[in-house]
Write a structure and sequence with these properties.
The structure is a homodimer of 412-residue chains. Chain A is α+β, with helices and mostly antiparallel strands. Chain A has 2 domains: 271 residues, L-amino peptidase D-ALA esterase/amidase; 116 residues, ArgJ beta chain, C-terminal domain (Ubiquitin-like (UB roll)), CATH 3.10.20.340. Helix content of chain A is 31%, strand content 24%. A 7-stranded mixed β-sheet of chain A has the order 1-2-8-9-10-11-5, with helices on both faces. In chain A, strands 15-14-13-16-12-17 form a 6-stranded mixed β-sheet. In chain A, helix 1 packs across helix 2, helix 2 packs parallel to helix 3 and helix 5 packs across helix 6. The first copy, chain A, is globular, with a radius of gyration of 22 Å. The relative contact order of chain A is 0.14. The N terminus of chain A is likely disordered. Chains A and B meet through helix 2, helix 8, helix 9, strand 15 and helix 10 of A and helix 2, helix 8, helix 9, strand 15 and helix 10 of B. Chains A, B: Catalyzes two activities which are involved in the cyclic version of arginine biosynthesis: the synthesis of N-acetylglutamate from glutamate and acetyl-CoA as the acetyl donor, and of ornithine by transacetylation between N(2)-acetylornithine and glutamate. Chains A, B: Pathway: Amino-acid biosynthesis; L-arginine biosynthesis; L-ornithine and N-acetyl-L-glutamate from L-glutamate and N(2)-acetyl-L-ornithine (cyclic): step 1/1; Amino-acid biosynthesis; L-arginine biosynthesis; N(2)-acetyl-L-ornithine from L-glutamate: step 1/4. Chains A, B: Keywords: Acyltransferase, Amino-acid biosynthesis, Arginine biosynthesis, Autocatalytic cleavage, Cytoplasm, Multifunctional enzyme, Transferase.
């Protein structure tokens, strides 16, 4: 995979390594596993646990901005008021969203069961230390006999080492075709690991998207919060597959402190950003129905925020996305789309390029614009609004027959 | 057709008749025609003229809110500062958008040519009295030899009577499969007639959409402006097929005064609204790739404006639209979509019904919700936000394979 063994220089002279076959158990102090609890009718893995062995339990979180929030989001928001987490239980096979007060009771009961099982296992744990994440069809109650039975089993199967992290990443998949995990090994001997799921419903705030990030760095909750919000704003918030936004989006960052290394805030920010950025690339590449990976960059905006807003408007435009599916360099649709963005632009000086080739200069077609080859899988769209120096990129995909097929053929 | 011979009581006791096989030449004082000028490679009709014989020339207009405006929009906005129109020339086969200063010169030259031809024909006309509308592919210059040649011909072929209006409606079609026209005969002996085109790119402000409305009522420009803005806000502005918005949208309302009847403002408002509403139904039914006509109604919002905003968010959601294409009563996607609307709502008291059957009550699933039959072509989605009495409806369509096919297979 592209991320395997990737190294990069973050300007400070340190060299850090990003590895894709490792996830939440790459940092010291974390155990994880995934099992088949019978929540999914298919019998595939559907329950994952990430357990922080400490010595620290500081944590941070970002959640969906959707006003309709699933029960596990409401629960985990309460848990996060303590700024600490000892464990996260995640299930696929059902979102437990729009399930009313009984659905919330189910989430609460799940957290209690995890706490009880961990306590029995030897680590005194309270439900208020257990985050809960769910993903799957909205609107149905979870099969709680399966969930609670699974919780008892999973605590006993928690593995240390890399295998457990990979099993967890597998168990949170829904329409994902591949698990997504990545680890960043800092040369100063601390590590960040992560797993994510999400293939549809990716949108303005976050993708549908469950993501657990772990680190063995020593960092307090405020440092984690700053690193996570900084990273989410620049990565998950700029991934927009279909403009829809889940009721369940949750990104959690847990620190065990097991490395006994305290990175600077800048080092922590950079590491979490790199991990989230890589996960976004993996999510984009596995999006529902994707045939092309599209990066829409807006330059020349009044501000960076304006650039992101304009890029998002283009990235969400069905006519732009279908044209790209058809490898059609129909730049007029890009102009029509960006013209609806609620930001400043100089309409008669806008320029557009596809894959580096100018197709529109000063608001009018460039020679050869209709002949640009968009047959490849990676498409870059760059739009210059000609009013300032603000820049921003939103990742999206094309709108394909497969997207329509996947989302019309069955309830998901 | 559904609108044929439809009559309705507008509360004042008067009965008024809506007829779909008549258009812009139904009112007295208007001539129109459509011809093949060779702008379209297919040889199909591509040039239309609507001519107001007077005695009045008052007019009103609404235009796209897109910041990227086509040359004919920029031109006609200038014309409309005079609040009068003697003629409108419309072409399909090219949008003349994103064509720079030369494209604007082409539009100007077209208006000059129409004015000159009308003057030669015996009606002294200035270019500033001629509105210009274009529709088709964005980004290419028009073949001006064809356009200017066509202008000379079309003035001589202008017919009175219903035939000319039908020919004009035919000549403005692009991906439309049927022409759209309607006439309203008021029992007080005045008439409103209209034609429209537009099948894709229908969006927040307006559909792509060219629409010319004529009336033989006596009405000054301010009365026309009020009637047109009122109608557009309740009809075209609430038709959202794919969230995209054209660079060329133009709706023009011309009054000849030939009936010598002066309706009240309320009568005029109601008549123009009825005509625009019927055209919207026709546009929706012929939208690109449509297999279902969907009406999304939001009730219980804090205000009518909030209701429309929320309905539009649902109507634009790809996951809702693909579910409806698949006849899947996946109400959870409606909840997830509306939860992102920037309006007040009581998330735990939201209710949803499909085709009149409750599928979600107080934010949770209703018994039998997954069994609702959505196999028919007309789908009603009603969402109650439970915070007020504001109501609004947005018309949309499903997101089908045919939509993807039509918009990916060729530049349009």
């Amino acid at each position: 995979m592209a991320g395997d063994g990737r190294t990069f220089d973050r300007g400070s002279g340190t060299v850090t390594k990003l590895v894709r076959n490792q996830g939440v158990t790459a940092p010291s102090g974390f155990r994880a596993t995934g099992i088949s609890a019978g929540i999914k009718a298919s019998g595939r893995p559907d329950l994952a646990l990430v357990f922080n062995e400490g010595p620290d339990y500081a944590a941070a979180a970002v959640f969906t901005r959707n006003k309709v929030k699933a029960a596990p989001v409401l629960w985990t928001q309460q848990v996060m008021t303590t700024k600490r987490l000892r464990a996260v239980i995640l299930n696929s096979g059902g979102a437990n969203a729009c399930t009313g007060p009984l659905g919330f009771q189910d989430t609460h009961a799940t957290a209690e069961a995890v706490a009880s099982a961990l306590s029995d296992w030897g680590t005194e744990t309270g439900a208020i230390e257990v985050g809960v994440c769910s993903t799957g069809l909205i609107g149905d109650r979870l099969p709680m006999d399966k969930v609670l039975g699974g919780v008892k089993d999973i605590v006993h199967e928690m593995a240390g080492g890399l295998t457990g992290g990979a099993e967890a990443a597998q168990a949170i998949m829904t329409t994902d075709t591949v698990p997504k995990q990545v680890a960043l090994h800092h040369e100063s001997s601390w590590t960040v690991g992560a797993m994510a799921k999400g293939a549809g419903m990716m949108a303005p705030s976050l993708a549908t998207m469950l993501c657990v990030i772990t680190t063995d760095a020593v960092a307090d909750a405020d440092a984690l919060d700053r690193a996570l919000r900084n990273a989410a704003a620049r990565t998950f918030d700029r991934l927009d597959i279909d403009g829809s936004c889940s009721t369940n989006d949750t990104v959690l960052l847990l620190a065990s402190g097991a490395s006994e290394i305290t990175p600077t805030q800048d080092e922590l920010d950079a590491a979490v950003l790199a991990v989230c950025d890589d996960l976004c690339a993996q999510l984009q590449a596995d999006a529902e129905g994707v045939t092309k990976r599209v990066a829409v960059t807006v330059t020349g905006a009044a501000t960076e925020a304006d650039a992101v807003v304009a890029a998002r408007v283009i990235a969400r435009d069905s006519l732009v996305k279908t044209a790209i599916f058809g490898s059609d360099p129909n730049w007029g649709r890009v102009l029509a789309a960006v013209g609806m963005a609620p930001v400043d632009m100089a309409a008669d000086r806008i320029s557009v390029s596809f894959n580096g080739t100018p197709v529109c200069i000063d608001g009018a077609g460039a020679p050869g614009a209709r002949d640009v080859d968009l047959s490849g899988a990676d498409i870059s769209v760059v739009v210059d609004l000609a009013v300032g120096v603000g820049e921003g990129t939103v990742r999206t995909t094309d709108l394909s027959h497969a997207y329509v097929e996947e989302n019309s053929a069955y309830s998901s």
